[in-house]
Design goal:
about 120 residues; alpha+beta; Alpha-D-Glucose-1,6-Bisphosphate, Chain A, domain 4
């Protein structure tokens, strides 16, 4: 993990693949963590909603769009579940602090909690 973050900062790369997820490694950008899962959109959305309720205050949800917004302390987290194929969805967890700067630590924490529920 530290190596991957070091690669991002030294190479100027906006995206890095790290770890082993359900359908491969997950990607980290400046303010988001994303991965694909061979699960239904409904299952990933449901588990994401459960985590959102555990970690903060849900401010909006839209199951059709697959989007959940949650306040985690002073950070706004946007969780997006997007259907890619009949069997695969993309989970994206994005976090921004009060001044709209990326908060990768919060995004990674929320992503990890969702990932654990999907294992």
């Amino acid at each position: 993990m530290v190596l991957a973050l070091g690669l991002i900062s030294t190479s100027g790369c906006a995206l890095a693949l790290v770890g082993a997820g359900v359908a491969g490694g997950y990607a980290i950008s400046k303010d988001a963590v994303r991965n694909t899962f061979d699960r239904s959109k409904e299952e990933v959305y449901s588990q994401s909603m459960a985590v959102a309720n555990e970690v903060g205050l849900v401010t909006s949800e839209d199951p059709k769009k697959g989007e959940i917004k949650v306040r985690v302390e002073s950070t706004t987290v946007t969780i997006t579940v997007k259907k890619l194929t009949n069997r695969t969805v993309e989970l994206k967890v994005k976090a921004r602090n009060q001044v709209m700067m990326p908060d990768l630590d919060v995004a990674q924490n929320v992503y990890n909690r969702i990932f654990e529920k999907l294992e």
